[in-house]
Design brief:
The protein has four helices and seven strands; from the N terminus they run E-H-E-H-E-E-H-H-E-E-E. It is an alpha/beta fold.
């Protein structure tokens, strides 16, 4: 996968980019969602879930580590590693069942659990550029290692 760059000028556009990516995902895909606080990761995640056909509301799994959504075209396992203190916490929740299952994983703050991430993950980086305006986001999608 070559790196793709998208330009969003609103929350709606960020949602739509997530939606489009969700429509193209395959079983076993793992997406690493990177970006600072307040950059639009949750908006992107909501669009991504809709693209997978998830009808229930998508929320950040900050306090649960993983939220499971099974009502779409593929199961969605939405992780937030922000509060992970040790990779053993991921082992306790059985991360391998999610990473190597038939669903799609969307992982926020994945750098915290870098050592357990398999090769071939898709990195989605969301960045602000205030020179382009307050709502502008640059969204780069690339296969890890590219």
């Amino acid at each position: 996968m070559a790196s793709e760059v998208f330009h969003s000028r609103s929350e709606r556009e960020t949602f739509e980019i997530g939606f489009s990516l969700g429509q193209t995902c395959q079983p076993g895909d793992i997406l690493l969602l990177e970006g600072d606080l307040g950059v639009g990761k949750t908006v992107f995640s909501k669009g991504f879930g809709k693209g997978l056909g998830v009808e229930e509301p998508i929320s950040s799994p900050t306090f649960t580590i993983v939220q499971i959504y099974e009502g779409g075209r593929l199961p969605l396992y939405h992780f937030d590693a922000y509060r992970i203190g040790d990779v053993e916490e991921m082992e306790e929740i059985g991360y391998e069942d999610y990473f190597y299952g038939q669903g799609v994983c969307l992982i926020e703050w994945a750098s915290i659990i870098r050592e357990i991430l398999p090769e071939g993950c898709i990195v989605v980086r969301i960045e602000k550029d205030l020179e382009q305006g307050l709502q502008y986001r640059k969204i780069t999608v690339a296969r890890r290692g590219d």
